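CORE FACILITY INTAKE
Project code: CF-77B
Contact: R.S. (postdoc)
Sample description: multi-component assembly, four entities in total
Requested service: structural model of the whole complex
Turnaround: standard
Below are the sequence entries exactly as provided by the requester. Do not edit them.
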Amino acid sequence: MSNPKQVTIVEVAAAAGVSIATVSNVLNRGGIRSSKETIRKVELAAEQLGYRRNTNAAGLSRNKTFEIGLIVPVLGGYYGQLAEQLQLEAHRAGYHLSVFSSGGFDPAIERRNLEVLLQRRVDGLICHGLAMGFESTRSIVNSGTPLVLINGWGWPEDIALGAVNLGFSEACRQSTKLLADRGCDLLVYVGNKHSKVIDGQRRQGFETGIAQLSSPIPHQFVDTKDLDMERFLQELMMGPAKRVGIMAFDDYVALRLLSMANKLKIDMPDRLQLIGINNDSVSSHAYPSISTWDIPYYLQANTAISKLLHKFGHNVATCEEREFEVPLTFIERETTKI
Amino acid sequence: MSNPKQVTIVEVAAAAGVSIATVSNVLNRGGIRSSKETIRKVELAAEQLGYRRNTNAAGLSRNKTFEIGLIVPVLGGYYGQLAEQLQLEAHRAGYHLSVFSSGGFDPAIERRNLEVLLQRRVDGLICHGLAMGFESTRSIVNSGTPLVLINGWGWPEDIALGAVNLGFSEACRQSTKLLADRGCDLLVYVGNKHSKVIDGQRRQGFETGIAQLSSPIPHQFVDTKDLDMERFLQELMMGPAKRVGIMAFDDYVALRLLSMANKLKIDMPDRLQLIGINNDSVSSHAYPSISTWDIPYYLQANTAISKLLHKFGHNVATCEEREFEVPLTFIERETTKI
DNA sequence: CTGTTAGCGCATTCAG
DNA sequence: CTGAATGCGCTAACAG
């Protein structure tokens, strides 16, 4: 017995001198109206007794919890921003959002949290960058709970309702063009294979961009993990390239490159140009400030929630496509401006 | 009717040819043992039918949810790290943690989330930097749900079980000494009044430190909000001080100062020294890298959860003090090393 | 309009 | 060891 017994509608009913059904009616403002008098009495009694509805009981009774579960890899940066926005959108629709972290792509934790959410009978699920594979996910989530993926490319229809994906690929594609236009004669993508699928999208966009260049430019791929940044930049500067353009995995990777460039006194943007992704606050506060791609959190969150609401039967406009791609917008700052 | 009807113990019982009570027993590994044979039958049936326990119903029935609610001002940086750690500790104790954000100290959102959590009958609550005042909080949380505060100084006993606070004050106090030792002849605290109570702690520690200096050093207070950093740093450099020591509100503020200093080509650490707080990843990746105070997340999370567990009746060691202060540890980096 | 009743899914006595 | 019965707090018909 954890809590010292909370007030229930039974007590409120007694205090107000009405039946529990009446209490339930007035307190939830259902279709049924009550007389002014009873409303007053009930509200007063509820107020005085400090009544607080037990939503678990309510959910049990009507088989609907008005809860949406969210699982993100980590509570910070881009994921955190998204979560905030999702919470807002959920609230707007009368739901609440419970946020869980998979502890940095840990499949075990992710799985546990998924299980917890399902056991809570959440009405819907939003998952970002599922670390588990198709099969694993399917076996867990086949209960009929609607699932919307964020940044989930090519997931089977029987698992997820749909997905809202960020246009990383396109952003990276355009970045190569942009860096080429700015006069870069060597292009490099500094990835992060830790975030497997997202890294894949970015890399692919970069490759596509390279292939579409009007005049070919040498390029290379490296990964943050096995990279000695200092040595890497030094060699770049001693190489034949007059101006190197780097597409960084995200703003944090960009910041690290930028810091090292500062240390090596590399002239930015003359000898080195840099583009990040996310428009994290660090990108604008760094010196020089980092050009980056901004994420339309509102659009992202709104479409994700809308997909769920639609499934719930709410009458909302929602895109038909299963995989909706939201475009990023370029924010030009000092690392590329010439 | 949101979900297309989930499997219940009734069906499992039928399939296994036993009663629901038996199912409940074997599935929850309660005190009561069952025969090997029934265990097998039940587990098989549950497995095949894809049974998943409805924790809401279970919670309703035993008046215990094994859920802990967490409210943080924002899902990112320090707060995010803490949330991750709290989730871990909660898991370890057999609870799960639902994370909510108050959307950046928004009292309305905070209040709504608190209410939601209370209505869900969470077993316990952990709140970080409550935006609402004493009275407001008391009126909401007086239901008997145990509440532990993080960074809540001087809260009345009838509201919160206790608090675990970070030693910001002490860290700032020591920082002044340190900057003085490094030869700074002007000390300034760049605060952030947006985070009222935390800013207060830091400022106070800074003041104390100043007062305790063996030989007095001129000092000043400014606030991030109404500060033109460029002009501010320029004037500092043109002033009489040979070496300025800045205690920044946190690593992000420090990064902004550092970036501006880089832009103005101010020599760090010779003419300007800088200390941040939080040991955020940016502090180590900036150039020059930022000296800062590291937060013992594990200790923080562990004591917070322990306080709750203790209240729940679990037999755990827990500190007696109502307000437990966890000390920060200094990480020296290039902005102060000479 | 208001009260009565029958569940929601599960845990928990208390008899067999 | 197992099962029938009761209740957790609330909602949803359905009667009055």
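Facility notes:
- Residues 169 and 204 of chain B are 6 Å apart (CA to CA).
- Residues 65-160 of chain B form a domain with the Rossmann fold fold (CATH 3.40.50.2300).
Invoice: internal transfer
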